[in-house]
Amino acid sequence: MTTLEQTGAGRRRFARGGALLIAALALPRETLADTPPAGRPTLNFYGVTGLIDMPTAQSQPDGQLSLTVSNFAGLTRTTLTFQISSRLSGSFRYTGTKDLNYAGFRDYYDRSFDARYRLLDEGRYLPDFTVGLQDFAGTGVSSAEYLVATKHLRPNLTVTAGLGWGRLGTYESFGSPFGDRPRIEEDTGGDLNADLFFRGPAAPFAGVEWQPTDRLGLKAEYSSDAYTLETRQKVFEHKSPWNFGMEYQASEYWRVGAYYLYGSEIGINAQFSFNPRNRPGGGDFGVATYPVQPRPDRATNPDAWTEEWVLQPDGSEILRANTAALLNEAGLTLEAMAVSADRVQLWLRNLRYDNNAEAIGRAARILTRTMPPSVETFEIVPVEQGIPAAKVTLRRTDVETLENAPNGAARLRSVADISAAHPTPPELERADELYPRFNWSLNPYLQQELFDPAEPYRADLSLRLSAEYEFAPGLALSGSLTKRLFGTLDEFERPNNSVLPHVRTETPRYVRDGDPGIETLTMAWYSHPARDLYGRVTAGYLERMFGGVSAELLWKPVNSRLGLGAEVNRTRQRDFDGMFGFQDYEITTGHLSAYYDFGSGYQAQVDAGRYLAGDWGSTLTLERVFANGWRVGGFATLTDVSAEEFGEGSFDKGIFMVIPMSWLTGKPSRAAFSNTVRPITRDGGARLAVNGRLFGLVNGYHRERLDTQWGKVWR
Amino acid sequence: MRHRWFVIPLALGLAGLAGCSSDGNRREHPVLLALDALKQRVDEHGAAPPPALTRDMIEPIQVPLYLARLESRGAQALLFPIGENGADVTWVTADQITVIIRDGVLRATRGLGEDLMSASTPDSAEIAAAAGVTQREYYHIGPDEQTIRRKYTCDLSDLGAEDIVLLGHHYNARHISESCHGAGQSFVNDYWFDAGGQMRKSVQWVSETVGFLELQKLKD
Q1: Is the ipTM of this complex over 0.90?
Q2: InterPro entries under this entry (chain A) (predicted)?
Q3: For the domain with range B55-219, which CATH number is right: 3.40.1350.10, 3.20.20.60, 2.40.360.10, 2.30.30.230?
Q4: Which of A443, A632, A629, A450 is closest to B15 using CA atoms?
Q5: What is the interface size between A and B, counted as CB pairs within 8 Å?
């Protein structure tokens, strides 16, 4: 009959310990065939798609990330380029020129941003046609604009011709078609130089690229850059506009080249290029889960379908225990469950799967094994920090019929419902045995300081001991201690010339005096006060430099592209020694935030409010989020602090990257590396770095994001 | 002045290092995993090669059994049935890779990397008839985690009788081949049907990076 039974631990262990395992199918894991991808356009000395020193009109494949290091005549350019969309790309570059003796520096270092947009696609007669802005917001030393066209004559032969302004209009200019170029203000740099664009002398450039084999490339170009400043400062001698080079595609990711430039110099270039869409290991090698267990046929076995099990006093208890055991095997946690004769709601905590749809799909398959046949509706509610982020409703019949159906994922999505979770559904029984819950971790991490003229790269390898004690769902005490192992960050010392409160420019003192130190020690409370509303209050040592109280409220409907948030923080600056003391500086900051998902992974965030130095302004963040969890983005903050008060860089800006661990390992994991690079860190436009902001917690389970990951619901 | 450009890629690679935690499986670090892999390589090197599979070894096993071989990875494993949904049977290896098979016809895989997530395939009887044209539709999980649909048109041909040996057992089999093309690719699946009309052995295409999966039905 239909009496519920607790399943014995281990009895259902999923095919473990097969005595006759000969060799694993997934091992050895071979990397993808090491063939150079034909047709990917190559990069130039500026790290953008191009010839040698000149650009071409082609674009990298959508999403491509390239890191290029080039050197000639004491000029070293390190460039990170991201193909933001199929037409638009952005680059961030760090240029060092030896012995330039310019602007008061012997060796001159400069940071610059580029943007390029491909206006026309190559066709039978038309070439690719691109407009580019080089160093459009920096000190202007490398500033140039260009229009360029590139056409294939044969599949392995391209010709390029273009017009350059600024730096690219300095050799054999034919005049200034759009008027004079105003002199750039040589102060703090960092402003948009829009009044310079396409002004001043223009000059033509051209080149050819021939790839006789898949791996070998030959390039020749006529450069329109006279290197006026560099030749005047005797960095090198410009004898000829002609440059020649030979490149070798060493692997799918690496390309190296050697060149003869300007009739006098030998140059080299190394390009590392990959696409975040493609996993280096070739795919997801995570283990499978239980298949669906279909119910017995109702016509021939009507007894199995009775609902009398609901009368069994310990019935829901047993179902909860059975489900929890199987979920646990799959790396998932049952937080709570409400079960009735025809419906089950499962509150699910996912600590393993970076793909949220996969976690939901696995839970659904497990429910087919544990729920009595009369339970037809599965409601799966993913829970983050105790708060239900959404509700995915599936009909069990659909789960059964679509498991192995062609295009089963898309077909399941068409009959699945993603909606708001009820904050406190009746009948919900929490798995009280989960609390209190303690976990800890010890991990190394890298702290970096980039672009100091005396030493462009400094880093410390440190250890972080983190621990968390959850009293109840959504209520946790957590903290982290850091201890430096070794590195060079302590050598970092610059006279602090900031005229603003020193909210971010005292990093060297925090590094030197605060080792070991308490990084964070906070009590956090999360809540879901009403439909579409989420709340957070965090109090304690919020980040390395500030402590206090932070409160946040977020409105984010599950099916909306738009989210709105508000945050208020009352904070005080912490002592340098990383212990419990505070300094005198106290400030109330806060922001109103808007989040918008444009689809296809493009997201924007605007934060407007008051920053740590007491300045008022707003931050714009644009990012591209890939289905596999990769994120690449940039941000800029403008506040009422003037460029002069801000100091070098004029305003706060930077780029960031999040690399999911699962992408590297090919196994499911929610861990990720994130890295933010700022040309320079100053005190203006600085925001409190509190952990656990709400949007990042809940948005992953909302419709836009779940839909991009849904292809793995049956994974 | 010292140049340290070379460290920047390293830094951007973000040197993940071995860590530990109260629940080990949650926080995996690439270096830790790499060390595991290395250890495994060393172990494999040092240890005697696993004994070759023989008929005697599988004799005591009381469940149906496939021997699966993945040519592209030089790997093989035994498959045990773990679930049935209609005509589709899910088979699992000891290391939790699953293969979904319907009467010998490969339907899906889980855990091989570029998995075949689902497919519409001809059924076994249609293939055994060895006449005419079949249609296949494969749904792969692409490198960016999106579903890629690929359609193929296939021609069946009967290559006649062949003697095949499956772990010491001889079968007088009929060799059918299915030549597929479409979606910028072409591949050939091979099937061997025994005298009872059951698909005894097959070599079926999974995906571009996984290649062909060979299946031998050792026990019914």
Answers
A1: no
A2: YbjH (IPR010344)
A3: 2.40.360.10
A4: A443
A5: 264
